[in-house]
Amino acid sequence: MEIANVFENNENWIAAKLDKDPNYFKNLAKGQNPDILYIGCADSRVSAEDLMGVQPGEVFVHRNIANMVISIDLNAMSVLTYAVDNLKVDHVVVCGHYLCGGVKAAMDAADLGILNPWLRNIRDVYRIHKNELNAIEDETLKYNRLVELNVQEQCVNLLKTAVVQKAVRNRGMKIHGWVFDVSTGRLIDLKIDFKAALKEITEIYDLGGMNIDSLTIDE
Ligand SMILES: [Zn+2]
């Protein structure tokens, strides 16, 4: 890809959009009303809209290294709060991907400078699920499983926030954990059993009577 081609590509894209719908950009300018907040990895191979087959205006997107949801990350928490409270999305998705460089880096013993505190959050996921992961001998399978468990833990981190707890309780907002398989292009729904995961932690993280038994998450 040549950087010089970008603006030419943009002109072609505009022409293609207007060819299908002369009012395309006029309508786009009217505002956004996305149904989904997508939290994914910054990896260049995992482009949110493309893999879901959606158009501009349909998905609110936040991406960072290894699709993390960290409570003191002002960026992620601002995106989450705006999407849930203002845009009133019906679904929040955490989408990880196999062959994730961030997850791989967290599996290796290496000092990566400023990345250390970020990757430590993935190492924490490893620690929580150490018994299951250490029982997997095949390194690729172990790597894949850590990608999946990281998605699960980031979904749990979403459920630890007051903004998500309120939206789940008051208007049935749903949380989903997905993994994108870079080598096949397939999007996989992990069908995480949040009720089971939450039963364990609700006693500690409930920020106002979430009533886990009445929840219908990811159904
Ligand atoms: Zn990644």
Give a quick rundown of the structure.
This protein is of the alpha/beta class and 219 residues long. It has 10 helices and 5 strands. α5 packs across α6 (116-128).
Please give a structural write-up:
It is built from ten helices and five strands. The chain is α/β, with parallel strands linked by helices and 219 residues long. It starts with 5 loop residues before the first helix and ends in a 14-residue tail after the last helix. Helix 3 links the parallel strand 1 (36-41) and strand 2. It has helices at 6-20, 24-29, 48-52, 74-86, 101-107, 116-128, 130-134, 139-159, 162-171, 194-205; strands at 36-41, 59-64, 91-97, 174-180, 187-189. 49% of the residues lie in helices and 13% in strands. Helix 5 (101-107) packs across helix 6. The protein has a five-stranded mixed sheet. It binds zinc ion. The site of zinc ion has 7 residues, from helix 5.
Q: SSE layout and pairings?
A:
Elements: H1 6-20, H2 24-29, E1 36-41, H3 48-52, E2 59-64, H4 74-86, E3 91-97, H5 101-107, H6 116-128, H7 130-134, H8 139-159, H9 162-171, E4 174-180, E5 187-189, H10 194-205
Parallel strand pairs: 1-2, 1-3, 3-4
Antiparallel strand pairs: 4-5
Zinc ion is lined by residues 41, 43, 66, 97, 100-102.
Low-confidence blocks of residues: none
Strand order of the largest sheet: 2-1-3-4-5
- Small ligands present: zinc ion
Shape: globular
Q: What's the pLDDT, averaged over the residues? A: 91
Distance between the termini: 41 Å
SS elements, strand count = 5
Helix fraction, binned, reads 40-55%
Number of helices: 10
Range of strand content: 5-15%
Spell the H/E element sequence. Answer: HHEHEHEHHHHHEEH
